[in-house]
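Need the bound structure for zinc ion, inputs here:
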Amino acid sequence: MKNNLILAGGKIVDPATGYFGPAAVYLENGQIAKIEKRPKEKPSGKNVLKLDGMIICPGLIDMHVHLREPGREDEETVLSGAEAAAAGGFTAIACMPNTDPAIDNAETVEYINERASLAPVKVYPIGAVTVGRKGENLTEMMEMAACGAVAFSDDGSGVQNNDLMRRALEYARSCDVPVISHCEYSDLAAEGVMNESFVSTRLGMKGIPSVAEELMAARDIMLAQYTGGIIHIAHVSTAGTVDLIRKAKKAGIRVTAEATPHHFTLTDDLIESFDTNLKVNPPLRTKKDVDAVKKGLKDGTIDAIASDHAPHSPEEKELEFDYAPFGAIGLETALGLVITELIDPGLLSWIEAVKCLSLAPATILNVPGGKLEAGAPADITVIDPKLEWMVNPDEFKSLSRNTPFRGRKLTGRAVMTIVNGNVVYSMM
Ligand SMILES: [Zn+2]
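Answer from helper R.:
Posting the output first, comments after.
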């Protein structure tokens, strides 16, 4: 029953072929067996799921997630993060190595793989670039890649040393995996807590200038060009970074990029509320930056949308703004924000949005998924595009509650998540 479902009555969105229209999807033995476009007759039988009015996509993939295992299992575990992912419509996630201890060796990659084998969605570990993410010595990247690390990153901080970053790109290139850069020069960011702007001045808070991000993005693009390595710019937050990536792509440099829902929906002036859930890194910027990020998504400069799901305990987030940690959770709101803020206003088509949420991350990380075709794993997200709901983190599967979107009304939500042919989440 679980393995051989027929999804009938819905419309499929397949960014690989550009098809957005009615289809029946046949799942067998954990794979997609057949896609019947514009079916003349409705399939019948007890394993048919009637999905009239629903959208059927290749399973969504979130390539930037922080699970807090090992180290802070009170905030998130591999299992709870995977459950939050399933509820948010994601069939796969990639987890960042800024755990305690960091994912900086083959053993820890294996530990994550072991935990992931019990999880409802696929979890791909990302290995650290430097030992302990200290920015001093490169990790054993080849060994980690051999154990399944899909990328390397010191996310949470940028790799400050230029020579180390150059060598990281060279090693990662030989494993054919990207280096994911959290672009921020810490000397420029100093002790900043929000975007440097007239708002930070008015609030008397120390600012993080946009150039702290842009300068490192420029460096990483130049190093990717010089080494032939593959660079992925995480959570693009400024108009200047979007411009740099656009030019680099035109020049044929191997650069890809992602944006988060908070960076295409929220601006720095909201911090007048002192809500620490708005304290994220990179910080929320200005309307001009938000517009540039949206434009970058529209023209393909920014390839992917990723949540940067960053769980923190209430005790930590209830500190004063200056002392609270950076980060907001996002697995269970990302899709609703994409539909409400990008698709419904007509900025992105369904094909473009689903590409950012599935095909692009699958391609960047070189993992299965992103396509609705025979022989592909039966990883599918079913979306009710009209479902109206209000964000209530108290109902989240995530162990943490730190979202800046509490109380926000959204339209559109994943109602079923299928991984390897198994229904791992369902509201139906
Ligand atoms: Zn980051």
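Comments: The chain has two domains: 6-56+376-426, 60-365. The longest strand covers residues 380-390.
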